Write the structure tokens for this entry.
Amino acid sequence: MNRDAPDPVTAFAKFKQKCQLMFSSILKDADERKSELYFTLVGWRRPRFIQQLDIHKGEDRKKPAIIFIWFENRLEPKTSHRIHRYTLQETRQEQGEPVDDFISRLKNLAAKCQFRNDAEVEDRVLDQLIWGSRNPDVQKSLISRDKSLTLTAAIETARSYEATSKHMKTLAGSSKRRKPSRR
């Protein structure tokens, strides 16, 4: 795990995913061995780590799931769901960011917002796709739709506009290189 990564939460999530994949295929039922391997992979010296690990039961220190939770709690600061909602509301698509990456970012933020149900999550992500899109044509198209617009349909619309924009740039570039011959 890269402990110096600019985004330690994301770095840890990727590391955790790799560990779980490895554990599920190689070490099916050996929790103590998984924990030892985990300490080695994360690059922490076990005795110092155990002193910092605020798990009181000795057996819990041998359970990778509990260790993962401890790391996640340490890496991701405790914040109010209202702060996450504000962050979601302020999120805008970055210059050059593909629609799918933007949607993924919105969904990850929405997951931390403690909305009541999946329908509210979908509605908030849909709203933010409209408000946060860098493409005014996407915004116009989605705003003009009725209330039956779904997130899936909005994503397809945004993808379509993104693909069309790329194709238009390709066409514009190729027409500049080819100059028609005059006779």
In short: The chain has nine helices and no strands. The chain has a mean pLDDT of 80. The CA atoms of residues 164 and 170 lie 10 Å apart. The chain has two domains: 8-75, 81-177.
